Protein 1
Amino acid sequence: MSATRMLVSMAVCASLLSACVPAAAAEAGIVSFVLISDAEASINDPGGLPGIVRRVERLRVAPDFAVSLGNNIAADGGNAEVDVLAYQASAGRLPCAHYYCLGDNEWAAVAADDRLSWEELYKTWRMPRGYYSFDAAGLHVCVLDTALALSRPENAEALAAQAQWLEQDLAATTARTVILCHRSVSLQKGDVAHWTGDAQLEFWPQDNPLAQTLRKYAEKIVGVFEGDAARSFLREKHGLLHHQVGSASTKVRPESQFAQVFIELATGNWFVLGNPETIDQREQFHIQLTYGDRSLLKTVRQAREDALFVDDPEVLFELMMQDIFAADERMRLERLAVEELERELEALDREINASLGTNP
């Protein structure tokens, strides 16, 4: 085989793998998504986020979507407005749709940085508000705002509005559902033996309206995926499976980590794949565990192999061109994201310079 033909063959294989894996997962009735917890990134220290984005691009099974589970920006980044823009620029490079949960750091940032309002945060992160839902590949996804500040008396009206929305949303759906949030609204200190920093850890009040609503609709909910506590674990309470996603912050662990979740829609079976993969939770590390029904990966792999059995040259060429066009579109969107960030930074520089110019 000539070098040219070999390169063409390699390109075709690569295009088939990238083009067919998501379709193969859908064909198998399995939805997949990536969860990034507590990245705590800033413009000066993006931490493990850029590396996570690169590794998600290379996953064997492309995710249908990705979600950052709160504490996305650093608590002490110094410039929350710019940190929010920088996070969006990095997350915008993911090869799938990306969504956000709000965490305690985001609430603190809006309170502390008068340049960042809730409206600006929602606009930059393309959120309709702090809580919302969407449907992806047959799965219903509820994103909750569970920052601890929302549990306090001064925010009772906002909490009641979210609880009413959650009741209506869960009552209306007939699809299998997952709940995504930052802090757990259901688990208490006694439910887990090894809370991280439990001397300082606070919890939502028991029987708060969000927890009550989740219990009421537990039969619809495949799992509740939460951030904040750093160490990964699985706990069952009141008929709900709570998955704690390990922190991506490099302050916790030298190598950043994330979880890829697989859910079979027909059965509700699930599998959580830690990246990097491990089934050993050692006390000195906070590692995202791999657990659940690994046969789901075999199902996806078989569907992918079936999809790859193509010998029509015209079909092969069309698949390769689709992949090339998709790559071009990703590059275009990346350039737009970078340009948007540059414009925001230039505007910030002008604002700072103007402010300095008015001071004696």
Note: The longest helix spans residues 313-358.
Protein 2
Amino acid sequence: MRKQINKKYIGLILAMFFVGLSISINSVSAVSTTEQYGTIEVMGGEYIVQNNVWGADTLQEITVPDTNVASFTVSISEHNQGSVASYPSIFKGDHWGTVTSGWTSYQVSQLSSASYSWSVSYGGISGDWNVAAEAWFSPNTDASGGYSGGCELMIWLHAQGMVPAGSQVGTFGNYQVWYSDMGWNYVCYMQTGQTSGNVNLMSFINDAISRGYLQTSWYYHAIEAGFELMSGGEGLSLNSFSASVSADGSQPPPEPPPEPPPEPPPEPPPSGEYQDISAPFTYNGVGDHLWRATSLGAYISSWNLQELTINGVDFTNTYVSASNLPARQDGYYYIHYDGNYRWSHFEVVGTAPPPEPPPEPPPEPTPEPPPEPTPEPTPEPPSGDYQDISGSFTYDGAGDLYWRTTDIGNFINSWNLATLTINGVDYTNQWVSGSNLPAKIDGYYYIHYVGNLRWSHIEIR
């Protein structure tokens, strides 16, 4: 009888032990980091989640709810600036020398397949940010020294208050294609309004090769996905992510770009709602407007808009020559403008050249500064014949021009320029807030503009 009781107790104790062990093994807890470049391994090191606050000093926190799942949330974001502050993301591969488990960097010519899939949640999240994945390539066998001379290939699902760097150079299926030289080839395939993607990366690789931005001898180092943040973004969630790559030594033939859906025939616009305009014409700011014109001059251009349609055809945030516009309806171009920002912009450029700038007024004498015990040397203004400007200012076109102003205002923006310097600092093709500009010299900002194209552009607001 004693032996039977002991066996029962032993069995009960063992059962309780294994139940407790099972509960301990199966329990999960969230992991967070606020470190500037803090990382969290998930799925046994196959993927790495990174905080990646590379462009700011403000607080950001990411949270991984379960390290057995490839997902994360931006749990804190205190960014509020006019440029990219961070790129919280998840990656697989050789990311600037940090390599995930089991990764091999193959030459592009060896790739037989490369794909990834992911899903996100961003509804109701305030701020300026995007939802972007990107693949990295370089001529080197590893990425410990970065990607100089290589290619950064981005694919956007959505953007709020942001556009890619550089300028638009074409389209690929339903995507806009943007390009900029950053010491490597930055090429971005942009669309908006998407929350998930199951992407055959090879079709984008082959398109980048055809444009001269990527070489088959370069190495495919990494794929990552997340959110580029300028301001806000708290609550953005990456719900799932997976990526795969295989190589067999042969390059598959390029896939044709996806066919865009057929556009419905434009409907006649409602009468009595459209305001008549004529070229040239410019509008900046927030609003939902309806205009009509019998001619749109040489070209139209727009940026930072929610929507721009002409006779029912979408031309949001693009440059379009007059020869590529749709046919008139009843002798008119019917324009619908929808902008949510002060810097939302639409312009109709006529055929006449821009007016000559007024002659430069004589410079005002600069007051002598009071004597200092240890005076700092006053920086010399950059050389050149500078014309005074003030207030909001816009210039489009080719030329080598010099301006100066006592006040930049809220921001300065430019694109399609060869050079733009302010007090000797390079701001070519950048958006810069007024608070981030260099100190004035003799009370002025000295601006040097070099543009080689009709659509080279600068604006001060």
Note: The two ends are 94 Å apart (CA to CA).
Protein 3
Amino acid sequence: MTIHSFLSDGRNQKTKSKLMNRPGHMKLENAWRFVEYIILDEMSMVGLSLLARLNKLVATAKHCDPMTAMGGINIIFFGDYNQNSPVFDKPLYHDFVETTNGNVRNNTKLPSENEIQQRSARALTLQINCVVVLEQQMRTNDLAYQLLLNRVRNGEGTSEDWLLLRTRVIGLGLRISLNDPPWNEVH
């Protein structure tokens, strides 16, 4: 199940979402009754606003103090921060401290309701108490390609990387056809 469907988020579901977020809603409480773990995959696409809404929903469903992170449920995040960023949301690692030339800027503007929720969600992410970093690439054994991916990921791509990537492009200029071996033998 996706996080959006669990939150009853989606097109044409605003009324349903508001009803489901009320304390005492039996369907909401039943859906969360036996939940002990939440697995959030592709965490790079989960933003602070989305995490704040999930936190509020779980606290409501579990009848928990809103200060109890995620209603006491364990959350396991999977993914890579360096992949796709959340759409119209701030990433989980967003830092709200504004700086100018390395100095903290004093902002007298009051935060919006959305920013307050995002800051609450950011506080949740700072409570993560266990991180496992996987460093071995399992999807390719090609060392040159692995090194290229790491350089591109860090914004350090080279001209040689570009040339290597060009060797993997199938197009008219390269005279490679999916109708020819070995490509036509793929099922």
Note: The mean pLDDT is 80.
